[in-house]
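stage 2 :: seqdesign
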């Protein structure tokens, strides 16, 4: 099928052993929960708003556990065959090519289904026997059922703010998964993250985080998502490039957060209140 090359690229396993640990600052006990669940062969549900560190967390955990990480960005056209595999024509031969989920099951990798809410239910049904105590992947087209290799882990993430397909996951399956809820990090932790990721100085990071707190406290509708750690980092990167703090925040925070003129203006007013006019002292 036409989309195969894209999948193959996007789902390439990342070799873990020789790479440095991805920078991840623990926010609570999430690392202990993840590792305990993994040792017990329990699947994980990561819930949290966009840009709060779910993907980075999984990368760090895969590294710590010494498992390859196979990530699948889910979308509504994703089919079971995209996950499990399919027969492809190679020259005059028909060959079976494993999908990312099957590779993870065979290799004992961590399979991370990012934004699993985007996938349709007829696609995610294949996860049920894998997510629970059976840890098996039935491959109908091959007429086999694979037992997951030791070290295999299934991790799915979703944003509970969006419509959730997980409502449609059987309760029996959901209850065999362990959930970790992510929020935004505590002030000092988030400041450290912004300093590390954007390269700004601590004072600048503190001002950006203070602005984010103010935006997160806004009770007005208007915003689908509040300012995430990710947008603060983007603002910090613009500041490092020489933009003023206000310019950087308008471009990296207001713009991505809203298209609504009035909401945008009130965000910009908050930016003017919370950030100095001067360049972020670098
Ligand atoms: N606890 C953290 N430690 C280190 N970096 C973090 C942390 N939280 C957020 N970040 C930073 O924020 C950025 C966004 O995080 P990430 O991509 O993991 O978010 P996400 O929760 O997966 O978002 P989405 O739901 O949109 O996929 C990361 O690139 C990283 O720089
Ligand atoms: Mg992510």
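stage 2 :: out
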């Amino acid at each position: 099928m036409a989309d195969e090359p894209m999948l193959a690229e996007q789902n390439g396993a990342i070799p873990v052993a020789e790479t440095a640990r991805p920078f991840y600052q623990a926010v609570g006990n999430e690392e202990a929960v993840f590792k305990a669940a993994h040792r017990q062969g329990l699947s994980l549900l990561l819930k949290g708003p966009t840009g709060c560190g779910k993907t980075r967390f999984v990368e760090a955990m895969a590294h710590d556990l010494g498992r390859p990480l196979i990530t699948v960005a889910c979308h509504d056209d994703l089919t079971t065959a995209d996950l499990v595999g399919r027969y492809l024509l190679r020259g005059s031969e028909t060959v079976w090519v494993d999908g990312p989920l099957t590779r993870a099951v065979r290799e004992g990798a961590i399979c991370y289904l990012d934004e699993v809410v985007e996938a349709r239910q007829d696609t995610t049904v294949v996860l049920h026997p894998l997510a629970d105590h059976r840890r098996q992947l039935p491959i109908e087209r091959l007429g086999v059922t694979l037992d997951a290799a030791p070290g295999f882990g299934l991790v799915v993430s979703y944003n509970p703010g969006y419509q959730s397909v997980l409502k449609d996951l059987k309760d029996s399956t959901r209850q065999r998964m362990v959930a970790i809820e992510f929020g935004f990090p505590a002030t000092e932790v988030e400041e450290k993250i912004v300093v590390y990721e954007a390269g700004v100085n601590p004072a600048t990071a503190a001002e950006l985080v203070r602005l984010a707190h103010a935006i997160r406290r806004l009770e007005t509708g208007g915003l689908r998502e509040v300012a995430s750690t990710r947008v603060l980092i983007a603002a910090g990167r613009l500041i490092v490039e020489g933009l003023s703090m206000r310019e950087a925040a308008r471009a990296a925070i207001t713009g991505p957060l809203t298209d609504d003129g009035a909401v945008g203006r009130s965000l910009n007013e908050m930016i003017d209140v919370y950030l100095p006019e001067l360049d972020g002292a670098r």
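stage 3 :: structure notes
- Strands lie at 43-47, 69-73, 85-90, 93-98, 110-114, 136-139, 144-147, 153-158, 177-181.
- The first helix runs from residue 4 to 10.
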